[in-house]
Amino acid sequence: MFGLFKSKSNEINxxxxxxxxxxxxxxxxxxxxxxxxxxFAVKPSDGKICSPVKGTIKSVFPSLHALTLKAEDxxxxxxxxxxxxxxxxxxxxxxxxxxxxxxxxxxPLVQVDLxxxxxxxxxxxxxxxxPEMKDKEVSVHLGEKQVGEVAAILK
Length: 155
Description:
This protein is mainly β.
């Protein structure tokens, strides 16, 4: 009746300005073949990584190349910045976020120096996956997006 009882879909925003692409475009098979779960990736045009959801920071890797969020609705969101960037031991990354911190969609999380990644021959793709997601489909909105624009809808 008037859509009141339809299953709710979740909007996931773009975490960084750039081109939203399918996971299959990620050259690392762990992400490209969806071994870590469904999601999308962004070819960034800048290094300001923001929260794609409202929720809580669950964990932050010491190297700042990856973090997990728990969205308000319970969805786990993993953001992985670049490929093989863990090898940089945090060089080129900065952040003041902490585990347990509440965030809104669009709040800054990590700053990454894209020129530094290029200098170190590291792919700068930003990957967003939902490792614990069950019983939902992901509809990815491809193309150029700005932080805060919808990149994916979970149904």
